[in-house]
């Protein structure tokens, strides 16, 4: 059995309050770059559903930038390492790895001839370094500033200059090569956060947390003037030049973006992005005809100059680890939820995501189930909530109904026909019909997961006591039945769509298949090819295959008819455990993981 990766619904940039984010642009104008965790994400600017991920860093990546030739990307991480890797090949072959400073890298810039690089950040003995991109040999010193450096840029034309922006409120200018300190600029009164040369190198602009933007001469570094007075009411997080160098885009913590005319130094367009804290704008990019900004919530906005109050397009998704997944019964929509309580509805056909609106759980969603007219979710706020679409075809929004559960939920399942939900909490099994809790059964063990067979109305509950506990549901009462022993805590259970089998996975790396007539082993094999705890299992719609996802980053496809054969999708989510799986059809699997990405796989039948 072979498999292929179909596409990825990409994670959003990982943002942090009070910290600017750097977006990288492709010199050919096709792609843009950002980082999330230890991934660098490359997205097509025209069709952002097309994305690629680079995951070779061993710790959090802070910045990624294209080389001026467009053939390489350099990415810098929290340990001070820079990796330079190929953009042309699918494998992204590593060209070089350097350690220019001994702490988190915050920004990178290339010289126009692709030969020199400068990296800045929060080192122990120095805050930046200039080196050759081929060999790593030093071509100058970055000195003269007393606190971490937030931003850097290389003058794109000769004579080369480097300018840096630091948390000591100053800008520093360096001449070279070899690069030597020339002067500091002390116009800003708070952290200097961004500095960028114009495309022809004749000017450079700086922005800071004092809300001000200043313009300087690119060659002499003399102050030309202040743009706006001040430019923004809040700190300015990022600036980007238009391709012709006549305009400047800025983004700010005052929840606006603005376009400035460089000649008159006056504002020409204001983009109001909203009123909530998560509408603070932490990054911007001007690439060709596209103007992008990133909100604190991580969403990417395509700004519209003609209609500044409504973005052309908003890219939504997750920027925190995804904890669970649910598939709509029509298989056209996939719901994913992350540990910050954000729930996204993905359109399977287009790959576009939209957030489920309304007051949700506000923190980690533990489990979800999708019915024809509603989405049900339970979270660690100890409630069960419903989201219903306001109109047919719309994305659901949370209603005001929240059903208190009394203790923390661990798992849930739902019967669509009579709107019955069974929630396993730390203390009990609760039976909820519609929006009211009908009954509960106290438990002597800690449950981990639930599955209901709609035909027999049997309920399987996995326990941390290494057992699967069987119950029978009669309208609103649960009657205990047999228990099935495992060698480790049970992590997931699932009845097959044809009601003939029950599969259970455990922390001891095993999957066990039971036949449902007497809950005996369906065949004398236990499936144990994972190398770590199995987190989740899912049945194909025709009940012939099972997908399992594990802490070992792999997905394995098992066959019920030929138990000796299996397909391993290695590194399905590199450096990230798999947290949820579902089958879109008999040959397509969707998986989610801690890397905040949602991936779709084709697994043809043998």
Automatic annotation (TrEMBL):
Compartments it resides in: Cytoplasm
WD repeat positions: 54-95, 185-217, 229-270, 315-356, 483-524, 530-568
Alphabetized GO MF terms: actin filament binding
Keywords: Actin-binding, Cytoplasm, Repeat, WD repeat
SMART domains on file: WD40 (SM00320)
Key word Transport present: no
GO biological process, one term: actin filament depolymerization
PROSITE patterns tied to this protein: WD_REPEATS_1 (PS00678), WD_REPEATS_2 (PS50082), WD_REPEATS_REGION (PS50294)
GO cellular component terms listed in the entry, alphabetical order: cortical actin cytoskeleton
Transmembrane segments: none
Protein name: Actin-interacting protein 1
Chief localisation class: cytoplasm
Pfam families found in the cross-reference section: WD40
Family assignment from sequence similarity: Belongs to the WD repeat AIP1 family.
Protein source organism: Spodoptera litura (Asian cotton leafworm)
Keyword Cytoplasm: yes
């Amino acid at each position: 059995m072979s498999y292929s990766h179909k596409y990825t619904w990409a994670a959003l940039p990982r943002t942090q309050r009070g910290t600017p984010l750097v977006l990288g642009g492709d010199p050919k104008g096709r792609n843009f770059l950002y980082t999330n965790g230890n991934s660098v994400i490359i997205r097509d600017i025209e069709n952002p559903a097309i994305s690629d991920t680079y995951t070779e860093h061993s710790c959090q990546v802070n910045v990624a930038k294209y080389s001026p030739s467009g053939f390489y990307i350099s990415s810098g991480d929290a340990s001070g390492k820079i990796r330079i890797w190929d953009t042309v090949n699918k494998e992204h072959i590593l060209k070089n790895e350097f350690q220019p400073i001994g702490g988190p890298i915050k920004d990178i810039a290339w010289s126009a001839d692709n030969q020199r690089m400068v990296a800045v950040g929060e080192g122990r003995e120095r805050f930046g370094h200039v080196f050759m991109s081929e060999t790593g040999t030093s071509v100058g010193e970055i000195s003269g500033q007393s606190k971490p450096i937030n931003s850097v840029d290389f003058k794109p034309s000769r004579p080369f200059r480097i300018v840096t922006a630091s948390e000591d409120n100053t800008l520093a200018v360096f001449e070279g090569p070899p690069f030597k300190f020339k002067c500091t600029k002390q116009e800003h009164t708070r952290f200097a956060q961004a500095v960028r040369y114009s495309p022809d190198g004749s000017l450079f602009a700086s922005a800071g947390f004092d809300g001000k933007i200043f313009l300087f001469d690119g060659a002499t570094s003399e102050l030309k003037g202040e743009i706006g007075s001040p430019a923004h009411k809040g700190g300015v997080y990022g600036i980007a030049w238009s391709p012709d160098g006549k305009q400047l885009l800025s983004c700010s913590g005052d929840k606006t973006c603005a376009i400035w005319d460089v000649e008159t130094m006056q504002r020409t367009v204001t983009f109001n992005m909203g009123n909530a804290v998560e509408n603070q704008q932490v990054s911007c990019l001007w690439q060709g005809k596209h103007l992008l900004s990133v909100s604190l919530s991580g969403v990417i906005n395509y700004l519209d100059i003609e209609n500044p109050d409504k973005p052309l397009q908003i890219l939504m998704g997750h920027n925190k680890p995804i904890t669970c997944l649910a598939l709509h019964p029509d298989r056209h929509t996939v719901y994913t939820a992350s540990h910050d309580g954000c729930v996204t509805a993905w359109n399977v056909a287009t790959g576009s995501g939209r957030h489920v609106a309304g007051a949700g759980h506000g923190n980690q969603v533990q489990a979800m189930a999708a019915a024809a007219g509603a989405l049900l979710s339970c979270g660690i706020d100890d409630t069960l909530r419903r989201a219903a679409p306001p109109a047919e075809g719309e994305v659901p929004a949370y209603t005001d109904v929240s059903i208190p559960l009394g203790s923390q939920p661990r798992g849930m399942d739902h019967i669509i026909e009579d709107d019955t939900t069974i929630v396993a909490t730390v203390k009990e099994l609760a039976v909820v019909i519609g929006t009211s809790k009908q009954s509960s059964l106290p438990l002597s063990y800690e449950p981990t997961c639930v599955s209901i067979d709609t035909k027999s109305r049997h309920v399987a509950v996995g326990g941390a006591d290494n057992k699967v506990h069987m119950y029978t549901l009669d309208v609103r009462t649960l009657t205990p039945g047999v228990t099935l022993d495992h060698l480790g805590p049970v992590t997931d259970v699932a009845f097959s769509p044809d009601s003939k089998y029950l599969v259970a996975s455990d922390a001891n790396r095993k999957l066990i298949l039971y036949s449902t007539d007497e809950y005996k082993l369906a065949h004398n094999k236990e499936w144990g090819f994972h190398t770590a705890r199995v987190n989740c299992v899912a049945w194909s719609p025709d009940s012939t295959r099972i997908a399992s996802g594990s802490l070992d980053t792999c997905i394995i496809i098992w066959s019920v008819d030929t138990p000796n054969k299996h397909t391993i999708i290695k590194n399905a989510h590199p450096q990230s455990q798999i947290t949820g799986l579902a089958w879109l059809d008999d040959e397509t699997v969707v998986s989610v993981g801690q890397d905040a990405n949602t991936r779709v796989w084709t697994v043809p039948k043998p």
